[in-house]
Amino acid sequence: MNENTNPAKRREWVKNAAIIFLSIMLVLTFFSNTIMNYSLPEVATEYVQRGTITEKVRGTGTITASDPYNVSISESRVISSVAVKAGDEVKKGDPLFYLEDMESTELLDAEKELNSLILAYQLAVITESMEVGTVSNIEGDRTLSLTQKQQRLQSAISMVDAAQAEYDAATLQVAAVNKELGYIGNQVVDTTNEKNAVSNAQREANAAGQAVADAQAGAAQASENVGIAKNNVLAKEAELASAKAEVESMQGLKDTIDNYPGLLAAKENEVSVARDEKEKINSDLEDLNNAYSQWEANNPDASPEEMAKQKEAVNQKQSELTAAEGKLQDLEAELESLKSANAVTQAQEEYNRRGGDAGLSSLQANAAAKKNELDQAKQAVIDAENRVSEANKEVANRQNEQSSKTSAVTSAQQALTDKENSNDNSVNKANVSNQLLDAQDRQAKAETNLNKAKEELSEIQKELLAEINLESQNDAIELQQEKVEKLREKSVGATIDAPVDGIVMTVNKAAGEKTEPEEALAVMQVAGKGFTLVFSATTEQARKLSVGDIAELQNAWYYDNVKATLSSIKPDPDDPAQKKQLTFQIEGDVQSGQSLSLSVGQKSSDYELVVPNSAVREDNNGKFILIVESKSSPLGNRYIATRVDVEVLASDDTHTAISAGLYGYEYVITTATKPVEAGKQVRLTD
Fold first, then answer.
1. Same domain, residue pair 595 and 668
2. Residue 199 and which of 88, 162, 269, 333 are 20 to 30 A apart at CA?
């Protein structure tokens, strides 16, 4: 029988084939699962568990000086050398910079201003016709005090008031006597016309007296205007002198620039002549040395005196050579200095600073304008003097008119007296008339005294004003002289010294550079003043800090005795709503400009759910973690990454406290060999 047709054999073959097929499928399934597992991301996990979080606020900032001191001077100078460098510790008074010997722009301007003040003072002395003693007292500071001047002026005012009161009383007396005369007389004799004539004449005389006073006041005002015009002339002369000085100064700078080639050629010629002279003396010295050596060889037994005598010419020629070499060195140094064109460069810089040719033209135009103003002021003086002459003529005319009116009063009074004497009351009339004459005499004298007192008051006011003006000018001259002396002292051997004890932080100028007034030449950290460091933190972080907290330094082992203390918490100017600015006081061995990283915060709290910092992830939907969930399969457990959204409550260097829908003790993914997506399978580390 055929084997293939045997049912028992066939079943055996099918059985074996099925076993082989299943074995092959099992092997393939195992290897495919293994290969798939090795292609999955390998993740590390930790338990979600209860823990403690100690929060820290971290930041990095640059150290700055708490109160830096800017070193500066008030004038323009050229720095000869720098005595310090950044980081040097100095004491108050130690030199920081050495300055070149030169007259600064400020000194030249101060000297020009001093000359202008002296000129104005001298012109005022001559114009005011001040006495020698008064000028000496002003210059010797022996003048009256302001109180004494006020007392003198008040005394003159009191004299005017007293004279005015006397004049008013005399006027009232004249009126009273005239009134009394009206009641005396014969009823038969009518003296009304005569009295009216006296009254009218007196009125005209009084008006004439007032006209004289007005004319005199006008003359006094005209004289005062002359003084004002002359003072204006002096001021314009001073302005013209100042303008001419500025033109001469600018022209001098231009001449220095234009004459530089000629000066250089002349100096080169002097050097050439001095060099030839030195060579000739050197040649003569060699000849003398040779002659002396020959003489010494020919006279071996010569005495010391003879040898010294022979040597004298050699020594003299040697001295001449030394002097010639010194002269040549000086001339060569002068030539090099001239070639460096320092002076002409400074002149060119100063000329350009003042505006160059345009500035010179402007100054010349200004001087011409000042000359025109002076001419106008002088013409104003002539006009004022003419008005004085006219006013004096008016005074003379008014005085003549007053004299005529006074004579008319006398004539009218005499007519009244004569008519009154013709009646029975002649005696009373005569007595009252005599009283009237006395009263009128008193009134005239009182008026004279009043005018004199007013003139004296005007003279005293003018004298005091002139003295005060000269005192002010003299004080200004003394102050300017002190300023010039101080600038002269600084012009030679000057240094810029440290104003305080401390450390030099920066040096802003090098040798050869020019300073500007009030420019910061160096910046110092004042001894005893600390350093500060500032960085920003969120408002939420700042709430957990307090002023006085001690910060920790990252890489603290690198620093020696450095301490950082939180000194203030203020809104950040760049983002006051969301951030705070933390300021730390830094103590220890640090320098301005150094960068430090700090961490600060000491408050700890317990939380139910704590995970490693690396477990917290974030995308557009917010923060989340991935936990591992296990699912059973015929071939074993499969591990699936599952997303859990979280809220971060706090964090420190290693862990983060979260709020989420977890029970605790879940496995959370901390790291992975590949990117992990929620819902995807992962494999655990062995």
1. no
2. 162
- 626: CATH: 2.40.420.20
Strand-pair category, 502-507 with 95-99: unpaired
Which residues are bridge partners to 502 per DSSP? 90, 526
- Tell me which of 600, 620, 649 is where a domain ends: 600
Give a yes or no: residue 245 inside a domain. no
For residues 477 and 121, the answer to whether their CB atoms sit within 8 Å is: yes
List the end-to-end C-alpha distance of the chain, in Å, as a whole number: 60
The three-state DSSP-derived secondary structure of 222-277 is HHHHHHHHHHHHHHHHHHHHHHHHHHHHHHHHHHHHHHHHHHHHHHHHHHHHHHHH
pTM of the shown model: 0.31
Encode pLDDT of 135-184 as tens digits. Answer: 777 766 776 777 877 887 788 888 889 889 888 888 888 888 787 766 65
Could you tell me if 20 and 127 lie in one domain? no
Residue pair 669/682 in contact by the 8 Å Cβ criterion:
yes
| Domain boundary pick from 577, 600, 623 | 600
| Dist CA 150 CA 80 (whole Å) | 55
Burial category of 374 from C-beta neighbours within 10 Å (exposed 0-12, middle 13-18, buried 19 and up): buried
Alpha carbons 253 and 349: distance in angstroms, whole number: 10
Total domains in the fold of the chain = 4
φ, ψ for residue 606, nearest 5 deg:
-95, 140
Range(s) of the domain holding residue 46: 42-55+604-684
- Cα–Cα distance measured from residue 375 to residue 236, given in angstroms and rounded to the nearest whole number: 9
